Here is the input.
Amino acid sequence: MPLGYDFSLDREAVMAFAQCSPPEQRLLLAACERVARHPFATGDCPMRGEHGRQNELLDLGEFVLTFWVDHAVRVVRIVAIERT
Here is the structure.
C-alpha cells in the first residue's frame, strides 16, 4: 500500500500556479507533495469553505495554500494558491 495520498488542484489553484515563476512552482509542488504525504496533518489555520467543508490553510511565507482532504478517495484537494 503506497504511503500518503495523491493531490489535485482546482481550476483557481491551477490558474495561480501558472502565473508563478519556475522556482515558485517548484516550491508549491513540494508543498503539495508534502501535504499529500501527510494527509492527517493539519494546516496552520482551519477555515470553513463556501460549501461548509473544513479547509486547511498552509502558510508558505510568500504563498498560502488552501486545501481539504478527501479521505474516501485518498486525495488532497488544493482549492486555492494565494500570494501573500
The chain has one domain: 6-83.
